[in-house]
């Protein structure tokens, strides 16, 4: 199978995670941010991630890919265990976490924005969403201060460094990509329990963290 992704994309991380967690081989291919034609030919619109199955057909939507791969062998890896508070945490923090990692994404050496035209398109798209990247980076201390009590809350929610609820579940598929995105923030120090979870989940899923390009 082949997985078409952007390296920065949290939704692509969701899809990539299930392959690593289950040990299912997949080839990853990065699409350019300004490549509209390729994904449109595959699924009718510009979107990632896209999975090309063994039969050559294409599947978009991160969670559909997760469910498909997890159930391929008839032995789902993800439990039905669910903590609504994890989703509530993600919802409550989405604006402040986005304000921290998205401006840095616009400046990082991701393969999908390596060309001037691709980067310009991405910067425009993200600026329309979250605001001026340079200004947001200047406001990093403010957003870090806002995030701290929420990180303290999250640390209390993490049952194990191997799984937020003690057993791997969809909550991990939703939580880890956001925490992985935050590893691009140079000045952010994750509390010990969250950091252990992030490091372990990266190893389990074989999804690289972003600390090597932190800004």
UniProtKB/TrEMBL annotation:
Looking at the UniProt record for this protein, which Gene Ontology cellular component terms does it annotate, in alphabetical order? Answer: cytosol
Q: What is this protein called?
A: Glutaredoxin
Origin: domain of life: Bacteria
**Where does the GST N-terminal domain lie?**
1-77
UniProt cross-references to NCBIfam families, sorted A to Z: GRXB (TIGR02182), PRK10387.1 (NF007702)
A Pfam family name for this chain?
A: Glutaredoxin2_C
């Amino acid at each position: 199978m082949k997985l078409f992704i952007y390296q920065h994309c949290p939704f692509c991380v969701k899809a990539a995670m299930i392959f690593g967690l289950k040990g299912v081989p997949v080839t990853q291919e990065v699409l350019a941010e300004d490549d509209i034609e390729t994904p449109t030919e595959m699924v009718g619109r510009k979107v990632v991630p896209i999975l090309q199955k063994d039969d050559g057909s294409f599947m978009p939507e991160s969670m559909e890919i997760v469910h498909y791969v997890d159930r391929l062998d008839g032995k789902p890896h993800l439990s039905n265990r669910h903590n609504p508070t994890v989703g509530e945490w993600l919802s409550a923090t989405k604006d402040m976490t986005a304000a921290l990692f998205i401006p840095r994404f616009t400046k990082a050496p991701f393969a999908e924005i390596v060309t001037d035209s691709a980067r310009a398109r991405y910067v425009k798209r993200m600026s329309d969403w979250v605001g001026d990247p340079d200004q947001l980076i200047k406001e990093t201390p403010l957003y870090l201060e806002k995030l701290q009590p929420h990180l303290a809350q999250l640390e209390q929610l993490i049952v194990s460094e191997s799984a937020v609820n003690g057993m791997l579940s969809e909550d991990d598929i939703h939580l880890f990509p956001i925490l992985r995105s935050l590893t691009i923030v140079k000045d952010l120090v994750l509390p010990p329990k969250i950091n252990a979870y992030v490091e372990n989940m990266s190893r389990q899923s074989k999804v690289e963290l972003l600390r090597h390009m932190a800004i």
